C-alpha cells in the first residue's frame, strides 16, 4: 500500500503503469479495489491512479461531511504529490460526483472525463432524509444493515442470483468501510450542488457509461448528461446494474481503452 499525506489525512492509493495518467475514483461505500480489473487493463498502456477517498479503504476518515468539493480537492492534492498536472478523471457514481466537482474546480487539470453510473443532479429532499437515516444507522449499527439495504439496488437480479463471487466482492467492500467514513460521505453527498449547469461548459472528451438496469442512477440520468455535454460518448452496458464495471467488466474495460486510445495527444 502507498500512502501520502493529503491535507489532514493519510491517503492510500494505487499508482501503477506508465503513460498518460488516468485517475479512477470509486463510489460509495466502496474503495479503490472496485477498480482492480480496470487498473489491470489500463495500466499496460497508461499510468493509473486509484485513491481510497477520505474515509474509505485504507485512507483516514475525518470529522464532518466529506463534501464532493473536498474529496475533489484531495484528488487534486494527490496529483500534486505525484507530480501530475493533467489527467483523465474518471469516477463511478459518487466517484462521478467527485469527478464533476473536480472539473468545476480544476478544469485545466482534466484531459478527459469518464462518468460511470452517475448523475449531475443534486439529491431530492427525500434522498437527503434517507442519507441522514443511513448515516445514523451506519454509526450506531455498523455497515451490515447498510450492505443489506444496498445490495439488491447495486446489482441486477441475475447477478444477485447467479454470480456469488460478484455479490461477495461488493458486500465485502461495503463491510470493510468505516462507519464514520460512510457517514461523512453520505452527509457530503446530501450537500452536493446540482451540476446540471456545468454540463454544457464541459469542453473535454467525455465518456459516459451506464448499466442498462442501474436502479440507483438510471440510464435516463446518463442520457441527460450525454445530451448536455457536447461531443460526449454514451455506452450503455446491457445486463448490468449500478456497479457496471464489475458486472460487465470486459465491455466496460473495452469502452475505457477505446476512449483513451482516441484521445488527442
Ligand atoms: C454510489 O454508488 O456511489 C452511491 O450509491 C451514489 C449515491 O448514493 O448517490
Question: Can you describe this structure?
Answer:
- The chain has 265 residues and is of the alpha/beta class.
- It has helices at residues 36-42, 68-82, 94-105, 125-141, 144-154, 157-162, 164-176, 179-191, 219-228, 244-247, 249-262; strands at residues 2-6, 9-16, 21-25, 47-51, 87-92, 110-116, 206-211, 233-237.
- The model has no long low-confidence stretch (mean pLDDT 98).
- Bound molecules: D-malate.
- Residues 27-28, 93-94, 189, 216, 242 line the site of D-malate (MLT).
- Residues 27-28, 93-94, 189, 216, 242 line the site of D-malate.
List the SSEs and their pairings.
Blueprint: E1 2-6, E2 9-16, E3 21-25, H1 36-42, E4 47-51, H2 68-82, E5 87-92, H3 94-105, E6 110-116, H4 125-141, H5 144-154, H6 157-162, H7 164-176, H8 179-191, E7 206-211, H9 219-228, E8 233-237, H10 244-247, H11 249-262
Parallel strand pairs: 3-4, 3-5, 5-6, 6-7, 7-8
Antiparallel strand pairs: 1-2, 2-4
The protein binds D-malate (MLT).
Amino acid at each position: 500500500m502507498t500512502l501520502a499525506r493529503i491535507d489532514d489525512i493519510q491517503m492510500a492509493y494505487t499508482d501503477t503503469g506508465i503513460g498518460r495518467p488516468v485517475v479512477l475514483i470509486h463510489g460509495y461505500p466502496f474503495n479503490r479495489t472496485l477498480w482492480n480489473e480496470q487498473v489491470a487493463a489500463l495500466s499496460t498502456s497508461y499510468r493509473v491512479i486509484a485513491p481510497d477517498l477520505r474515509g474509505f479503504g485504507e485512507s483516514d476518515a475525518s470529522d464532518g461531511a466529506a463534501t464532493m468539493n473536498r474529496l475533489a480537492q484531495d484528488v487534486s492534492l494527490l496529483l500534486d504529490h505525484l507530480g501530475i498536472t493533467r489527467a483523465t478523471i474518471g469516477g463511478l457514481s459518487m466517484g462521478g460526483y467527485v469527478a464533476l466537482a473536480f472539473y468545476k474546480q480544476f478544469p485545466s487539470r482534466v484531459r478527459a472525463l469518464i462518468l460511470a453510473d452517475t448523475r449531475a443532479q443534486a439529491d431530492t429532499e427525500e434522498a437527503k432524509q434517507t442519507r441522514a437515516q443511513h448515516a445514523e444507522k451506519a454509526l450506531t449499527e455498523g455497515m451490515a444493515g447498510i450492505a443489506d439495504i444496498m445490495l439488491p439496488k447495486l446489482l441486477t437480479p441475475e447477478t444477485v442470483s447467479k454470480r456469488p463471487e460478484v455479490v461477495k466482492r461488493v458486500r465485502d467492500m461495503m463491510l470493510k468501510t468505516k462507519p464514520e467514513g460512510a457517514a461523512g460521505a453520505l452527509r457530503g453527498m446530501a450537500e452536493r450542488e446540482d451540476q446540471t449547469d456545468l454540463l454544457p461548459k464541459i469542453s473535454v472528451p467525455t465518456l459516459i457509461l451506464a448499466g442498462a438496469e442501474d436502479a440507483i442512477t438510471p440510464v435516463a440520468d446518463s442520457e441527460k448528461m450525454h445530451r448536455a455535454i457536447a461531443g460526449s460518448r454514451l455506452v450503455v452496458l446491457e445486463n448490468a446494474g449500478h456497479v457496471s464495471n464489475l458486472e460487465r467488466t470486459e465491455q466496460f474495460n473495452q469502452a475505457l481503452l477505446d476512449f483513451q486510445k482516441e484521445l488527442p495527444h
